[in-house]
Amino acid sequence: MGIPPFVLASASVARRRLLQIAGIEPLVCPSDFDESQVQTDDPAQLVQILAQRKAETVAPQFPSSLIMGCDSVLAVNREIHGKPANSEEARQRWQKMQGHFGDLYTGHALIDLCQNHTLVRCQVTRVYFAQLSSETISAYVATGEPLKCAGAFALEGRGGLFVDKIEGCHSNVIGLSLPLLRQMLADLGYSVTDFWYSS
C-alpha cells in the first residue's frame, strides 16, 4: 500500500508545528466549517463531530489522500469553552479557571480516501491552572494569545507559565495528540515512520 499525501484540515499553526516536529509535513487546507451548525452539551461528542465535519469538508479537494480534522474545547465545571469571542470573555474565563482545573478535549478524525475508511477518536487531558491575580490575567489577555486558543490559553506559549501541571497527553493540549495519531495510523495499516519519507 502506497503512502498517501497527509492533509491537515486546520488553520492551526500549533497543529501543523506538532506534525512537523513529528516528521510529518502536511498539506494545509483550512476547512472553514461553520462550527455553529453542531450543538451538543457533550464535549467528547462535540469535538469528534466537528473534527469529522472539518475533514469531510476538505476531503473532496484531495482524492487519494489522508485527511485529518481536529477540534478542541476546554470543559470547566461542566461548561464547554472554545475560543473566547473577545478580551472580556477571555478575562472572565480566566477568573473562573485560575486555581482550578479543566479537561481539554480534542477530537481527531482521519479519512483515508484510498481505503474509503474513516476513524474518529477523542483524547482528554486534565489541565491544572495556577492561582493568578487580576493584574496577571489582564496582562495575559492583553497579549492577544488567549483569543486564538480553545480554553483561552496556549500551553506552548505564554499560557504555559500559568499551568501548574497536566494529567494525560501533553501534545493533546496543544491541539493534536501525537500518541493517538500514531495509533489511528496503525489502525489504518500505516506506520507513522512511513510519513517521514513521503514529503
TrEMBL record:
Enzyme class: hydrolase
Enzyme Commission numbers on file: 3.6.1.9
Pfam family membership, one: Maf
Cofactor: a divalent metal cation
Subcellular locations according to the entry: Cytoplasm
Entry's family note: Belongs to the Maf family.
Protein name: Nucleoside triphosphate pyrophosphatase
